[in-house]
Each structure stands twice: as structure tokens, then as C-alpha cells.
Amino acid sequence: MTGMDMPQLTDRTALQRNRARAQPDALFLHEAVADELQERLIEVNRTFHSIAIVTGFPDFWAEKYPNATIVPDDETLNLQGGGHDLILHTLCLHWANDPVGQLVQSRHALKPDGLLLCTFFGGQTLHELRSCLAEAEVAVTGGLSPRIAPMGEIRDLGGLLQRAGFALPVADSIPLTASYANAFHLMHDLRKMGENNALNDRSKKPTLRNVLTEAASIYADNFINDDNRVDATFEIIALTGWAPSDTQPKALRPGSAKTRLANALNTNETSLNGSKD
């Protein structure tokens, strides 16, 4: 399937407009991801000399990594083939029309044994708001329109790295909870984050005030916390993969072991028919 044939999930013009309205004081999720990535890089214990960052928020990430090459998360990434030993793909894959294509391009831009760390929003993100908006819209209008981008579940996302040709793939999730005075404050914060609705099939008409009021009421009834505020879940998915290299550890061929497990455990080995060897 070519880029022209691929379904366009995201309205890129609307996405860029939303991001242009984002305010630095609302980018706390990027701060959390930056801290998480730094911890993971410390654990890797390797010095990287040619870093590229794929992001929709270049000013924020350029400040964190002043020597990195910063590229936008366009459908075609402006990355040099084999030019980097580390790529950070930061909180933007959930808006990609072709997420596997983004990962494939990232792999081609890595040197052998180069590292990709990719973070984006997972399926539990804003599940409270999504359910409340859906219930409210059905109750008020009798219909339902796309409002929040569909986000993958962790059980399905690990295979993306393998499909993209990465070695040693790992997928894990980082749950974060934020609290707000009410659902209106949450929706206002999403706008300040640049993460409001940019779906291609979204309704172009303003949401009815009655729908928002009903959603806020449902939210308060179901997701209030002990501080009399409402909780909002953000699930960050982290994908870790390495560009293939001959120097990487590889699994042994089945049957090639030279030591019996029973000997290592100092126990008797029992065959399937119940006899002992």
C-alpha cells in the first residue's frame, strides 16, 4: 500500500495548528518522558555520538538535547540513512498515519547496533474522558463522532518493532495519572498540550455545550478522587529496538546445548514416558 492509498487517520494541517497553540507550561508529559528516556539511556551505559529526535515539539527537545538533529514527525522522516547511533521518537507515533513506516524509516536511519527509543500514547490514555464523551454524546444527540485518536494496546504493539526489522525488541508501558478540578480543566489542558482532536474524520462543527456539560457530569460521578478532583490516565508506551548487527547476541540453535539441564540442576531427568535417564 502506498502513501497515497493508505487511510489518512490524522489531519496533519489540524495537528500542526493544534501544536502551534501548545504552551510550554502544559508539556509536563514531555518532561516525564524526557526523564524516563534519560534513565533508560543511563542503563544502556553507552556513549552516543549522533542523536536524532523525531518530534512535534522541536523547541522542547532541542533544549533537552542541544547537539541532536531535530526532525518533524512528517510521513517521510528527514533522516540520513545509516547516519545515527540513537534515535528518540518522542510522543508522536500515535498521530502517524503509518506507524510501522515511521519505525522502518527510523531503522534505516540507524547505524548497525544503533538504538531506537520510541514513546507514544497507549490504549489506556484518557479512557475516562473517552467513555464519558461517548456516553454524553449518545445521550444528547443520539449519535457518536470520532473525538480521540485510537491508541494501540501494549499486547499488540510489541510486534511493530519486529515488523519494522528491529532486533532485541521490547515494549512496555508507563502509566501516569493527573488530577484536575473537573473535566473542563482537563479538556482545556489537552488543548494547551497540542493534543486536542486532529482526526481526519472528526466533526468539523463545534461540540454542543450540552454534550460537554453532560460529559463533565458523568466524569465527576465516576472518576472523582479523595481530593474531590477527577483523575485522568495517560499511558506512555515505550518501544526499544536495535538496528541489526553481527555483534549482537543471538539465540542458540535448538539442540545445540552441550550441557544437560538436569546436570546443571543436580537432579534426575524424566522422559515423557515416565522413565528416568
- What strand order characterises the main sheet? 2-1-3-4-6-5
Percentage of residues in helical conformation: 25-40%
Strand content: 15-25%
Oligomer: single chain
Assign the structural class, choosing from mainly alpha, mainly beta, alpha/beta, alpha+beta, or little secondary structure. alpha/beta
Number of helices: 9
Which radius of gyration do the C-alpha atoms yield?
23 Å
Low confidence ranges: none
Q: What's the shape?
A: globular
Name the average pLDDT: 88
Span from first to last CA?
Answer: 56 Å
Main sheet record: 6 strands, mixed
Q: Can you put this structure into words, describing what you see?
A:
The chain is of the alpha/beta class. Helices cover 36% and strands 19% of the residues. The chain is built from nine helices and six strands. The chain has a six-stranded mixed β-sheet, with helices on both faces. The longest helix is centred in the first third of the chain and has 17 residues, at 28-44. The protein is globular, with a radius of gyration of 23 Å. The termini are far apart.
Overview in brief:
The protein is α/β, with parallel strands linked by helices. It has nine helices and six strands. The protein has a six-stranded mixed β-sheet, sandwiched between helices.
